[in-house]
């Protein structure tokens, strides 16, 4: 699989990372190199093999559905680059 | 003997006999760190906190309440969240992030009386094999090639931890291993590094890279010290759903156990094309040492080994692209400006992430995107299942697997970074066990012709760290590795 600058722009948009025109060309070559290299997996016969999603047992433990006071609002907001009146702030999203 | 040259076991013995105090031991290491800043092994040094913890440890010991690591100073990889102490994951996007909580692994260490010297440098978000992707600058290995003063890499991603332990800035350090990030730097720096079974240590409060692979583990200068640290770091944690609810064995007691009668598997697929003669010779020497200690060498086959790296470089970036979606400039870390929310996200992530992290997020985004998900991601997960099955089959005829840790000794800073795939090949011997979730250890076993350390790796069955440690103890005894780095605290 070979990617061009347009493909990189699309992936970068999905990943929410701004890339410059120069970076697109550079990244297209680098990402194509990695994708061509991983292509070799297509040689492996995986008929009837279940995809491995976890190395430990897939059964998750449950916990009682009760309020837990392990953290506070102020703790949660302590590292926010901009917090106001107990909330995170973002640029206006609703017109 | 200088206090910075004591092993953890020796230090504990002297603390017990009141020959030394934790304050003295800690002060010696704080001074050593100050004198070795050129290595760039630490992102943050915490001398005041260390002395405060040391005093408290001495007070507890005086009252007869000494825990397993009471008063022992350690370096902590800057991937573990530490309450009130900046935690960056080696990334600009987390510069200034001060956690309001403590990771379970470090909380376990403090519960057992350990003292924190500082936060060790690492590859950005633990993505790298050289420590050169850190936003806080590369770490230099304390080792030098014979007759050559060019700085070498300490390996990665836990490069600061490994360099600190090798340079006698700390007797032990925490690391994390996703595809070899403990074992490879341990081999490059001539020390011991262990990745336990996935699920043995809680991942809670450790900055996530690839959640199905990430596992914490210890670095130290002896197998016994590694076992002591692992005992404190391990244990079930209800806050991590993949942490396993099993009793923590007495790891320390496993070191020194006889390996007589154990079967040691040697996988033929690891004898890769173009393997250096020195690595090959060391591996054969390792087989001989195990035989001399009473073990039996058996050939085993891990037929899907050659596909492990490609599998890893789909699975790990896919998980990283999901995990790193949380860095949005809203909740913590760097925030860039933008005309709307999307542009703010895009600018924040463009400014905050380095080149290797961006590369992996983009690869991961691509392999998870509509139309490519089955061909790449699901295919890789199926091959991963085959790689894990290879190990299950191999362990029917052996108890441990012996391999080299890395395909070469440490390389020079800047020698390999141009080609990402050349860098990825460093992990060829460590990635398969990571994909299968198995415990692995690297033991320093010899020097190459340039005078640089080389490591041998032992891989064990799931949750059989005790046999891994017994085997590692036997290797350590036979190898009698006493070489020390050129740059070292007095």
Write the topology of this structure.
The complex is a heterodimer of chains A (95) and B (490).
Chain A: H1 5-14, H2 21-38, H3 73-77, E1 83-84, E2 87-88
Antiparallel strand pairs in A: 1-2
Chain B: H1 8-16, H2 22-35, E1 42-45, H3 47-62, E2 73-77, H4 104-111, E3 115-120, H5 159-166, E4 172-177, H6 183-189, E5 192-195, E6 215-220, H7 223-233, H8 251-254, E7 263-267, H9 277-292, E8 296-300, H10 308-323, H11 341-352, H12 355-367, H13 373-394, E9 400-404, H14 420-424, H15 431-436, E10 440-447, E11 453-460, H16 465-479
Parallel strand pairs in B: 2-3, 7-8, 7-9
Antiparallel strand pairs in B: 1-3, 4-6, 5-6, 5-10, 9-11, 10-11
Helix pairs in contact in B: 2-3, 5-6, 10-12, 10-13
Please characterize this protein's 3D structure.
The complex is a heterodimer of chains A (95) and B (490). Chain A has helices at 5-14, 21-38, 73-77; strands spanning 83-84, 87-88. Chain A has 95 residues and is mainly alpha-helical. Chain A has a domain at 5-42. In chain A, strands 1-2 form a two-stranded antiparallel ribbon. In chain A, α1 packs across α2 (21-38). The longest helix of chain A has 18 residues, at 21-38. Chain A is flat, with a radius of gyration of 22 Å. The model of chain A has no long low-confidence stretch (mean pLDDT 92). With 490 residues, chain B is an alpha/beta fold. Chain B has a domain at 3-259 and 463-479: Amidase signature (AS) enzymes. Chain B contains 16 helices and 11 strands. Chain B has helices at residues 8-16, 22-35, 47-62, 104-111, 159-166, 183-189, 223-233, 251-254, 277-292, 308-323, 341-352, 355-367, 373-394, 420-424, 431-436, 465-479, and strands spanning 42-45, 73-77, 115-120, 172-177, 192-195, 215-220, 263-267, 296-300, 400-404, 440-447, 453-460. In chain B, the strands form 2 sheets. An 8-stranded mixed sheet of chain B has the order 4-6-5-10-11-9-7-8, with helices on both faces. In chain B, β7, α9 and β8 (296-300) form a beta-alpha-beta unit. The mean pLDDT of chain B is 96. Chains A and B meet through α1 and α2 of A and α10, α11, α12 and α13 of B.
